[in-house]
Amino acid sequence: METVTLTHTAALARLGHALSDETRTRILLTLREAPAYPSDLADALGVSRQVMSNQLACLRGCGLVEAIPDGRRTWYRLADSHLAPALDDLLRLVVTVDPTCCSPDGCTCS
């Protein structure tokens, strides 16, 4: 088993922050399938271009996505090839969690 360092805990904290917002989570899940342009992501997720820009900036700041210039446009992809399989693993984990237990307003488990 690998020794856990402060770098590991900081990276997981950034991932947790990113996943704490539904729009950011949906962006990451979409990008695990293929890179995309922000306008296409905004249309696919039903959010404004401004919201998409803000959320992509957050994900870039967390080191989870990277911007790739393409002429006058920029497309986005996951920053690390390990992230897509990790998100797939998290999706499998989520189905084992009681969806009525925790809500965005806090934990309601007893």
From TrEMBL:
Gene3D superfamilies hit by this protein: Winged helix-like DNA-binding domain superfamily/Winged helix DNA-binding domain
An annotated Gene Ontology molecular function: DNA binding
SMART domains: HTH_ARSR
One record GO biological process: response to cadmium ion
Residue ranges annotated for the HTH arsR-type domain, each copy included: 4-98
Protein name (Swiss-Prot/TrEMBL): HTH-type transcriptional regulator CmtR
